Input
Amino acid sequence: MNTTRHAQRYKLLDTLRGWTLLHMIAYHASWDYVYLYGGNWQWYHGIGAYVWQQSICWSFILLSGFCWNLGKHHVRSGLKVLIGGMLVTLVTVLFVWENRVIFGVLTMLGSSMLLMIPIHSLLPRRMRLPWLGLLCSIALFVLTRNINTGWLGFEAWNWIALDHCPWLYRGYLATYLGFCDPGFFSTDYFSIIPWFFLFLTGYFLYRTLPMENRRIQSGLTHGIQPLAFLGKHSLLIYLLHQPVLYALFELWYRLFPVIVS
Output
C-alpha cells in the first residue's frame, strides 16, 4: 500500500483507518482515566461505551480484511503486525502485569493476514459468487461471536451451549483460537475465532465490488490528508499511543491531582 503508483488510490481507506484510530485513542484514554486513575464516569460502564468500543474493533478488522486484497507483501506485512502484537505482550507482561495484553488485536490481525495467504491461494482467481463467501463469513461471525464464553451465539443471544465440551477450553493454544481458558486474563483479547470471520468478511466485501469501475476508482482517491497520514502509520501509532497516554495522565495527575482523582 505504500507504492507511489497506488498512493492516491488508497487515500480514502487510509482516511477511514485514521478516523478509526482517533476513536481508538480516545477510547483507550477513557479506559485509562476510569480504570487506572479512578475516574467516576458511569456512562463508560454502559451500553453506549460498549457500542463505541465494538464499532472501533469492527471497523479496524473489516478494513484490514478489505485492504488485504490490495497488498503485495502479505508475509512481510503479517509478520510485522504479529511481531508488533508480541512486543505489546512482552512489554505489558514485564512491566504492567495487572494490565497485561495477551492475544490482543495486533496478534489476531497479524495471524489473520498470514492465515489468509493459503486460503486466498485455494480460492478461484475469479470467484463467480463472491457474495456467497461474504454471506458465509458474516454467518460464521454471527454464529461464533460468543464462543469465548462457551456459547454459539451473537452478543445477548446465546443459542447453543458448549459446556459439554470443557476439554475445548483448556490452555493457551485453545485460548488463542477462541476457546478461552477459565483462568485466562487479558485486558485486550481478540481470538482467531470469531474475529477472523470478520476479517474474512472484509476480504470478500472487496471482491464483491467492481473495483475496475471508474466511480469507485475515483472515490478511493479522495480523503482527508491528516487522517490519511495517521492511517498510513497506524501500526506505529498503535504501538506508541498507550505510553504517550500514560505519560500525559501522569503529568496531569501531578499538576492537578484533585481534578484527576
Remarks:
- Residues 1-8 have pLDDT under 50 and may be disordered.
- The longest strand covers residues 157-161.
- The beta strands are 151-154, 157-161.
